[in-house]
Amino acid sequence: MKDVFIVGSKGIPANYGGFETFVDNLVSRQEDKQIKYHVACMTFDKEPRQYEYAGADCQEITVPNIGGAKAVLYDLKALDWALAKIKQENMKDGIVYILACRIGPFIHRYVKKFHRYGFKVWVNPDGHEWKRAKWSAPIRKYWKVSERLMVKNADFLVCDSRSIEAYIKHDYAKYDPQTTFIAYGADVSASKLVEDDPKVTQWYTKHHVTPNDYFLIVGRFVPENNYETMIREFMASDVKQDLVIITNVEKNKFYEELKQKTHFENDPRIKFVGTVYDAELLKYIRENALGYLHGHSVGGTNPSLLEALGSTRLNLLLDVGFNKEVGESGALYWGTKQGELKHVLESVAKLDQTQKDQLAKVAKQRIKQQYSWEKIVTDYENIFLRG
Which residues does 194 contact at the CB level (< 8 Å), separation at least 6? Predict the structure, then answer.
């Protein structure tokens, strides 16, 4: 039996979040029973639970709600739990898999302790967290230092983007990092909802949106996702369709700044519709969009992009490495220079049905062949057993 501890996700079963969805799929779709998963889960409750989920041993880790620092504290406490369990149950020859690079200044001493029990420490470096505008300059500096120390001390790194893997190998060449690429996964099944389902009709009626007559954006409302560019370019275009934006803008300073800069509230095509946590409804909304706009400029393989390529017929992606490696020839691409996205949006109206169908076919084939959860889980099981 290979014991694999997973540290860094908020917990399973997953309600949201990339790492949470990954861990949920990893354990619930498990095929090889030679692996025993032990999953740390964050909680604010003073009486943490230990429970089983899809055969995985799950342990809640209690942390105080102290803002951004709670994630660092959570990872450290989760590693303490893993170490204690390994000692208590006399486990040997396993893997501790840490998701993201939050605890670089502390990792060296943990690696030494896990090595004593024959456990290797693996890391998923995630994306370029130190580039995110939401962090202050000192925190961005911490992220970069932490990333460097995680790469330096990890036994192995699993990158969910070839672009991120290339960056790790280039920027940290002096550490000779041992890496591999295993993508993030996507659900390729169609929505179970139909057009006359009450959930569907209520949502479209509430937001005054017509199926197949809107462009769609889904993602966190942060500057590095290029909302300003997408909204400005859409407002400058002559497209007749709506721009439907599914995101959470409550108490969001960036939202108010963007409103002052663009005055998007004066364009009736721009529709902020809040969040959609119903997975089947969100899938239906994707399937019935004319096109999906993806402006993410930071990170690796993005879950929203995979879901869009697997369900939306036409995808318009920011032209950066980690988007292009996923979309390849199944999408259209745009840059951030004035007029570029406007031109792409207006060119969509000139595409004939055959061209649209071909783009959709290539995108869906790409997701099914390279990014299905079945493939991703198999890839992980194979590498865990070899590790």
Answer: 200
